[in-house]
Amino acid sequence: MKIEDLKKEALQKLEKSASIADLENIEKEYLGKKGRIRELSLSLKDLDLEERKQAGIKLNNLSNSLKEKLELKRKMMKLMQIQEKEEKEFLDITIPSPKIKRGHIHPLSLARKELEDIFTHLGFSIVEGPEIEDEWHNFDALNFPLNHPAREMQDTFFIKQRKREELSQNEKLILRTHTSNVQTRYMEAHVPPIKIIVPGRVFRSEATDARHEVCFYQIEGLLVDENVSVANLKAVLESFLQEFFRNKEVKIRLRPSYFPFVEPGFEVDMSCLVCNQKGCSTCGKEGWIEILGAGMVHPNVFKNCGLNPKNVTGFAFGVSVDRLAMMKYKIDDIRWFHSGDLRFLKQF
Ligand code: FA5
């Protein structure tokens, strides 16, 4: 009777079992070394021989059939587990992949690339130089006197250096304030004729507004040869601006101006294409926007770079890529460029 009860109980538990862990517990409880079947078989010793034999056979059968049933259910459970996993991890390789969002070229890079192409067609080579520069190449070699206001803290970012006051001018480091630094570097290392443009980033410690950024892009132009004149300078400036704006009506005006490294020097303005000279925030309601500094290379600059001003002449100019891009794409605030605002960037 006890054997039948044990069998019933074990089968009920097997029926209810819901996990492999449940099956392991049942196996341990009934079939283990100290399990219920073993326990019952030990209690048979008081029965007489024939009864003991019969009960032994029954217990043995119970043990075997329980083992079989456990094994069967374990296999079923494993199969179900695999099926569930397959259903969960089903991968349909025929589903079309989500569209990859493509980036595109930033408007400043677009403008720079176009300017480089125009100047390359005009016969200029593209040269680059360091953004962290020494004072000699950024200022002194360019004929800036030591007390020039551009050297003051409000304009120039100085690199912190120990014992700065004990360093010479070509050891003191700053962030270059213009790409004219490469003029001097290039003239030190090359003999004329020289015909280069220098695109790159420049840095100025000044308040930002619709037309001024702390970090903006310039392209420096330098042409050194015999008998170079202001007429050559004007022709190059006009053709590159008209080419860049694809507009033969672009007007420029040259105003006399002072840059220590040129003589004579000019500030070059172009007619504002954002408002067609009606007056807007880009041109500060002037109708003209200043985009260029230019002039004939100063004899002192030639001397500082090891060239004889009696033998060579040249012109130089420095243009802001940001301001040209503003004009071309009709952007009313220079700060859009570095805003990272996708609503702005997606328009190009
Ligand atoms: C210069 O940087 C001279 N190196 C240019 C030059 C080269 C003159 C060769 C003569 C010969 P300037 O500081 O004016 O000059 O800057 C050149 C142009 O950069 C300006 O005409 C103006 O269009 C633009 N610019 C100046 N400051 C900023 C600013 N903070 N943000 C954006 N553009 C600026």
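^ adenosine-5'-[phenylalaninyl-phosphate] complex. Residues 107-345 form a domain with the BirA Bifunctional Protein; domain 2 fold (CATH 3.30.930.10). The pocket of adenosine-5'-[phenylalaninyl-phosphate] is lined by residues 178, 180, 204, 206, 212-213, 216, 218, 220, 259, 262, 265, 290-295, 316-318, 320, 322-323, 334 (CB under 6 Å).
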